[in-house]
Specification:
single chain; 373 residues; mainly beta; Sulfite Oxidase, Chain A, domain 2; Immunoglobulin-like; 2 domains; globular; binds the ligand Nc1nc2c(c(=O)[nH]1)N[C@H]1C(S)=C(S)[C@@H](COP(=O)(O)O)O[C@H]1N2; binds molybdenum atom
Length: 373
């Protein structure tokens, strides 16, 4: 099916009653160059990539001020007192109109999960496999792990009287692009969240304040920020974000356009790219993650030598990430460190990644260049 036909399932524009102000700059938080690669020029949206070396000083969670940002429009300013969430559509018995206090009064849960852009690692299609994919040239910094606090989306859908015939839920945002990404009702009821807290604090403006969606284990495009509406339908729903973009197409996928959901196993070193180290012994650290299971083993190989086991330490939450380290006696010259993780389902990071035209889901092992002085 072509994407034009797909769009017949689009739901109509809803005149938003919420007062939305734009910010002075594209983002609200500062982007110190030691923590971020700044892509806020608007060419591919308003984005900031976390530098992996900036995670070396952090604990298990990514602090909000170092968390990557991926936005298709500048950050809107929405007062919690003005914010409303409308839950409606043929898939529910009754329309709900909820305020911030209503959401806070519902049962609360906190979960630690990774949020990762589907395009994370895209630059490696070119750098490792010699074929450039269009879109933002993310290295591996479009991921973060946070503790998200909110109420299960199921709490809200149940109060709206979700029907047995309900099929898809379209979360819609209040920012300039009116972002929409549908998900099946089963997933919405299973573990999707309406989130107002990040790492124990109020959700920051750039990450969706007052309330965003978090869809655990799915590519972050489903985790709609500044959510203002949940449209529940008895049919499949479509928007540009599951027909034009964020689909797997081309390469082995041929003409098909498969809306992407979960991602593979990946690893990154907490070092600059390229890294420069003094000669001598170093503890090299990094993190690996997988949406399908906790990380069970991490191997590393220097300059193509046999794989050795890295030591996993600290928390290893399923759907978040695992930290690991190994000791390396660095000799002067140019080196390349490769890291390969395996998750508890036995999923192994591949050496090469099958091509798709939009450059999503690069989960291959990458060679990290290290210059030793
Ligand atoms: N309203 C809105 N929600 C959005 C987006 C957006 O542009 N607007 N981008 C999506 C994409 S593609 C990603 S990767 C994540 C990024 O979340 P973060 O900026 O909090 O890291 O938000 C998702 N939700
Ligand atoms: Mo994304």
């Amino acid at each position: 099916m072509k994407s034009a036909e797909h769009k017949t399932g689009e739901v109509g524009r809803w005149a938003r009653p919420v007062k939305v102000q734009t910010t002075d700059g594209p983002l609200v938080k500062p982007l110190p160059p030691e923590d971020f690669v700044d892509y806020t020029d608007g060419e591919h949206g308003y984005n900031a990539e976390t530098r992996w070396e900036a995670l070396a000083q952090t604990g298990y969670l990514t602090p909000a001020e170092k968390f990557f940002v991926r936005s298709h429009a500048p950050t809107p300013r929405i007062a919690a007192s003005d914010w409303r969430l409308r839950v409606e559509g043929p898939g529910v018995e009754r329309t709900l109109d909820l305020g911030y206090e209503d959401i806070l009064s519902l049962p609360a849960v906190s979960v630690t999960r990774a949020l990762e852009c589907a395009g994370n690692g895209r630059v490696f299609f070119e750098e490792q496999q010699g074929r450039q994919a269009p879109g933002l040239p993310w290295r591996l910094g479009a991921i973060g792990v946070a503790e998200w606090t909110g109420t299960p989306m199921a709490e809200v859908l149940e109060r709206a009287g979700v029907k047995r015939t309900a099929r898809d839920v379209m979360a819609e945002s209040l920012d300039g692009v009116r972002m929409r990404r549908p998900l099946p009702v089963e997933k919405a009821m299973q573990d999707a969240l309406l989130v107002y807290g990040m790492n124990g604090e109020e959700l920051p403006p750039d990450h969706g304040y007052p309330v965003r969606v978090i869809v655990p284990d799915w590519a972050a495009v489903a985790s709609v920020k500044w959510v203002g509406r949940l449209h529940v339908a008895e049919e499949r729903l479509f928007s540009p974000w599951n027909t034009d973009d964020y689909v797997l197409t081309g390469g082995d996928f041929g003409e098909e356009r498969i809306p992407l959901t979960s991602q593979g196993v990946k690893s990154a070193l907490e070092l600059p790219w390229p890294a420069r180290l003094r000669r001598g012994r170093h503890e090299i650290r990094g993190r690996s993650w997988s949406a399908s299971g906790a990380v069970s083993r991490v191997g590393y190989s220097v300059d193509g030598r046999p794989w050795r086991e890295a030591r996993i330490f600290g928390p290893n939450v399923r759907g978040a990430w695992a930290r690991w380290c190994f000791s390396w006696d660095a000799r002067p010259g140019g080196h390349e460190i490769r890291v390969r993780a395996v998750d508890e389902d036995g999923l192994v990071q591949p050496d090469a990644v099958g091509w798709n035209d939009l450059g999503y889901l690069y989960d291959g092992v990458v060679g990290h260049p290290v210059e030793v002085l």
